Amino acid sequence: MQSAYLDCRMPVAVYTSPGVVLPRMHFQDRQGQMRFAAKLIAGVLDFKKKIDSETLPVEYLSGKPLCMDQYYQILSSCRIPGPKRDTVVNYAIGKISSTHITVVHNFQFFVLDVYNSDGTPLTVDQLHMQLEKIWNSSLQTNKEPIGILTSQHRNTWGKAYNNLIKDKTNKESVRAIQKSIFTVCLDAPMPRVSDEKYQSRVAAQMLHGGGARWNSGNRWFDKTLQFIVGEDGTCGLVYEHAPAEGPPIVFLIDYVVKYIMVHDLDVKVLMFSHFGKNVPKKHQLSPDAFVQMALQLAYYRMYGTCCSTYESASLRMFKYGRTDVIRVTTVDSLNFVQAMQDPAKQPSERVLLLQKATQTHKNNTYNAIHGQAIDRHLLGLKMLSIEDLTSMPEIFMDTSFAVAQHYNLSTSQVGSKTDCVMCFGPMVPDGYGVCYNPMEEHINVAITAFNSCEETNAARFAQAVEGALLDMRALLEDAAATAQQ
């Protein structure tokens, strides 16, 4: 550690500190940034519990146990610059362990206590609230980027450091950063680049922050662990290499990402008790098509548009058959949902459009289960062109194909005689997963969405589905009563 890192006088930024890019997050604003940062902090604190209680499972290589010491060096530690050589101080070792993290926004550093007085960690909601306060207290963008000093040549920074801590307030501020469990950098959005260049741009941002104009002043490069959460959805971390190698850092990242993804899923189960298959069957409509049109109507009411909708079709009529796609959104389904929202349309007209839309869906379902759908066929052609190294057919490069494959609604009817609920996650970050079981007198619907997406909300969608089902029954019954008169 001494010769490889602490004696080295080159800047730690770029020269020795590795940057790590996390998967791109699907938020583009401060709300998403705050929410993700809060969950990330909670995830690291959850990992810290294992370190504090020394319950981290021992790792093995070829059946031999590995030393776990590095795991105990990465939290609450910091590199300290010296005029000729640096040192690392670990504040986790000792009687009083740190209870705060450092948060940096607009080059301004804040102490955030992450534990309650009884020793329990703050909840994600409490952390979110504190981050909001920090954000609102640091809106000025004209502050000196003191953190950028930590990116200098070590001798230069060592001299500046000694001058800096001559001032009592500065010394206390620096100590607070050094003693903190880790740092969270709330970065300003970086310039947009093409998707092709995105990963490279983010990798550079994680390594050095993009320069003085951007986020390099939003760092304390001596801090062992700095998590970076950008307002534009870019996330990752940079770590000071002296206390540990990559594997413990990657293990921590895996743990935290798994923690966030689990906490990111919003699940709402709708036990729809007003009616079941009995109502559509009474009106000679396919129960599956009826529920699917309700999902279309609910989505249209929430977003004012239709979306690509996936319903799985079983191919078990064929040996080893798995699934193909029933594409639910059709011209007829669009005509129906638009008519439901158009006050000028008569109920009789709406009923005809519902009948037509459900019949189209029934036909498409029949075709799909009999091997006449399009998606697996296209998948086969795409895989062949990749395998044969021929040029990719134009259809697969077309924007409309990408849109058609982006299923905001991923749905499946899993019919069971048992009163059970199956659920699965959304296929896309800004989508819903909807699994339903239509029983004779009621319908069980499980809806999932990601909390990290501002636009989706499982509970609101469940409410919209319930409203759509009730409105569709009312429509059918009114029409039937009118016909009897």
Automatic annotation (TrEMBL):
Question: What InterPro entries has UniProt attached to this entry?
Answer: Carn_acyl_trans, CAT-like_dom_sf, Cho/carn_acyl_trans, Cho/carn_acyl_trans_2
Q: Does the keyword Acetylation apply?
A: yes
GO terms, molecular function: carnitine O-acetyltransferase activity; carnitine O-octanoyltransferase activity
Choline/carnitine acyltransferase domain location = 2-261
What are the UniProt keywords, alphabetically?
A: Acetylation, Acyltransferase, Endoplasmic reticulum, Fatty acid metabolism, Lipid metabolism, Membrane, Mitochondrion, Mitochondrion inner membrane, Peroxisome, Transferase, Transport
Quaternary structure note: Monomer.
Topological category with respect to the lipid bilayer: Peripheral membrane protein
Known EC number: 2.3.1.137, 2.3.1.7
Predominant location category? endoplasmic reticulum
A GO biological process of this protein is: fatty acid metabolic process
Annotated catalysed reactions: 2-methylbutanoyl-CoA + (R)-carnitine = O-2-methylbutanoyl-(R)-carnitine + CoA; 2-methylpropanoyl-CoA + (R)-carnitine = O-isobutanoyl-(R)-carnitine + CoA; propanoyl-CoA + (R)-carnitine = O-propanoyl-(R)-carnitine + CoA; 3-hydroxybutanoyl-CoA + (R)-carnitine = O-3-hydroxybutanoyl-(R)-carnitine + CoA
Tell me, in a sentence or two, what this protein's role is.
Catalyzes the reversible transfer of acyl groups from carnitine to coenzyme A (CoA) and regulates the acyl-CoA/CoA ratio. Also plays a crucial role in the transport of fatty acids for beta-oxidation. Responsible for the synthesis of short- and branched-chain acylcarnitines. Active towards some branched-chain amino acid oxidation pathway (BCAAO) intermediates. Trans-2-enoyl-CoAs and 2-methylacyl-CoAs are poor substrates.
- Identify one Gene Ontology CC term for this UniProt entry: mitochondrial inner membrane
The entry's family comment says: Belongs to the carnitine/choline acetyltransferase family.
Entry's PANTHER family? CARNITINE O-ACETYLTRANSFERASE (PTHR22589:SF50), CARNITINE O-ACYLTRANSFERASE (PTHR22589)
Which SUPFAM superfamilies does its entry note? CoA-dependent acyltransferases
List, from the UniProt record, the residues annotated as the active site of this protein: H241 (proton acceptor)
EC category: transferase
**Does the keyword Endoplasmic reticulum feature in the UniProt annotation?**
yes
UniProt-annotated location(s): Endoplasmic reticulum; Mitochondrion inner membrane; Peroxisome
The protein depicted here goes by the name Carnitine O-acetyltransferase
Q: Which source organism?
A: Takifugu bimaculatus
Which superkingdom heads the taxonomic lineage of this protein's source? Eukaryota
